[in-house]
Amino acid sequence: MREKDFREGVSDTLPLLLGMIPFGLAYGILGKSIGLSSGETIAMSIMVFAGAAQFICLPMFAEGASLLMIAFTTLLINLRHLLMGASLATYMSGLSMPFKAFLAFGMTDETYAVTISRAQKGGYSGSYQLGSNATCYLLWVISTVGGVILGSHISDPLSWGLDFAMPATFLALLIPRLRDKVSIVVCLVAILVSVGAVILIPGKWYIIIACLAAVTVGGLMEGDQNAD
C-alpha cells in the first residue's frame, strides 16, 4: 500500500463529510425509535454501510416487511453503484479480485466522486480509494454510534441545516467538470429526467431512470463525436 496516496485519500475526503454527520446521527436516533437495539442499529451501519438504503429500511422493519422485500428495496436504491463501478473498472484492472471487492464495499457517492476525479486528473490509486473509503466508513459508523448514545438529547439533527452541506458539496464537485457540450447536456438531461421521474413515478426509480437516460445521451453524443 502506498501510504502517501492513502493519506491523500483521507485528506481529500474529509471536507466532503460534514453533511454525513447529521444523517448518521439521525439514523442512530431513528433506529432506536423504531425498536432496534443499539447493537442492531450500529451493526447495520457496519455491515450494510449504505445511508439511503438504511433510512428506507427502518420504516420497513417497523412495519414488519419481509427480509426479501427489504433486500430488494436496498438493491433498487443502490443500483447506481453499478454505473459508478463500471466507470472505475478500467482503472482497477491491475488490482486483485479480493481487493476490488473490498474497495467496492466501501464505495459511496462521496468516495466515488473524489476517486474518479483523482483518477482522471492524476492517475488512479487503490491506496487512495482505500483511504477515502476508510474515512467515510469510520465517520458513518462513529456518527451512528453518536446518534444511538445522544438520541435522548437530540430530537432532530437534520434541523441544524447541515443536510444541505451534502448536495452543496456535490455541486461544488460537479460544476468545475462541466467543461464541454457533452457534459453540460448530460447534466441537464439528468436533472430534467430525475425531477420528472420524482413527480410521476413513486419510489426511488428516479435515480436509475435519470442515470440510464444521462448515460445513453452521453454515449450517443460521444459516439457522434468519434465518428466525426
Notes on the structure:
With 228 residues, this protein is mainly α. It has twelve helices and no strands.
Q: Can you summarize this structure?
A:
The protein contains twelve helices and no strands. With 228 residues, it is mostly helical. Helix 2 (20-33) crosses helix 3 (38-47), helix 3 runs antiparallel to helix 9 (126-150) and helix 8 runs antiparallel to helix 9 (126-150).
Structural topology:
Layout: H1 3-13, H2 20-33, H3 38-47, H4 51-62, H5 67-77, H6 80-89, H7 97-105, H8 109-122, H9 126-150, H10 165-174, H11 181-200, H12 205-227
Note the main attributes of this structure.
single chain; mainly alpha
**Element-level helix/strand string:** HHHHHHHHHHHH
Question: In percent, how much strand structure appears in the residues?
Answer: under 5%
Stretches with pLDDT under 50, minimum 5 residues: none
Q: Tally the helices: what do you get?
A: 12
State the major sheet: none
Instruction: Name the overall outline.
Output: globular
Radius of gyration computed on alpha carbons: 19 Å
